[in-house]
Amino acid sequence: MTSVAPEHASPSPHDPMTLSPASQAPVWDDAANERERRRARVRKVASRGVLYVTATFFALFAALPFAWMVLTVFKTNTDLYNPNQNPFLYNEPPTLANITYLFENTEYATFVRNTLIVSVLVVIVTLIGAVPAAYSLSRLAGKWGEGLGIAIFLVYLVPPTLLFIPLSRVVAELGIRNTWWAMVVVYPTFTIPFCTWLLMGFFKSIPRDIEEQAMIDGYSRLEAIWRTVLPVSIPGLLTVVVFSFALTMHEFVYALAFVTSSDQKTISIGVTTELIRGDVFFWQSLMAAAALVAIPMALLYNVFLDRFISGFTLGAVKG
């Protein structure tokens, strides 16, 4: 007698054809999630690769002037001026004659000394003028402070070629023409306006509560500024120092207009006037003079880079 299977017999749990969609869902979800994670990893690696390639390209592009300066310093004339030779290689043995010529036939050491003296004095004058002005305009001037700060900044935008003629009269009246004191007097006229505007934005980012609390504790306003505001303002003050120092070293128009004696010149004007004689350019010595100044400045920027950027960005956001 033939037995008939019940119509609603339960399927075997081991039969793959009888798995329900609900039981299959976790398997497919895990596979899909794994593929998505792989795609995410590939996208992350690709984006970082593009970032590193781009950063490397711009780093090499920025380093090319320094590399070219250093390479040129040790080249002989026949190696440098021969168009048939590879300009990126030493086709002839390197030489130190160009550095020797720089120090023995020009007053380069005097130029460096004058530049350091002028830069330090300008930085001091700039801090003395910009810090009180910026604090007063940001804290005490009320609604007028912002407008006055912008007006002061506009002075910085005036081209030096429009100002060196009247300033030369001022220098002559003071009796400091043809001395580096002329640059000490003139350079703050464009460092103080910009640094005042920059520090205004930085002081605005500092809460008033810290100095008010110091005044409640018995300090005067000047003591509160010295003990609470200025220590917090180190990134902004450092930005002012680096900016003023670098701008003083690179300035050319005023130095050319006010100083003619070699023993009073700074690097920017002394190197160009001593190593460019008519149509004769002492390129290797020029590059040596530039490299000996540019490389220490680049290292200085690199050491204080984080504070320098924070000083600029805080001033830009809050100013």
CATH topology of the largest domain: MetI-like fold
The oligomeric status of these chains comes to single chain
CATH H level of the largest domain: which superfamily?
Answer: MetI-like
Give the number of DSSP strands. Answer: 2
Number of helices: 15
Estimated share of beta-strand residues = under 5%
**What is the CATH architecture assignment of the largest domain?**
Orthogonal Bundle
Terminal residue distance: 100 Å
Proportion of helical residues: over 70%
Computed over alpha carbons, the radius of gyration is: 33 Å
What's the CATH class label of the largest domain? Answer: Mainly Alpha
SSE topology string = HHHHHHHHHHHHHEEHH
The profile of the biggest β sheet is: 2 strands, antiparallel
Give an overview of the whole structure:
The protein is mainly alpha-helical and 319 residues long. The chain has two domains: 27-62; 106-318, Orthogonal Bundle (MetI-like fold), CATH 1.10.3720.10. Helix content is 75%, strand content 1%. A two-stranded antiparallel ribbon has the order 1-2. Helix 4 (108-140) packs across helix 8. The longest helix is centred in the first third of the chain and has 53 residues, at 21-73. It starts with 20 loop residues before the first helix and ends with a helix. The relative contact order is 0.11. Residues 1-20 and 315-319 have low confidence and may be disordered.
Task: Give a quick set of tags describing it.
319 residues; disordered C terminus; 1% strand; 2 strands; mainly alpha
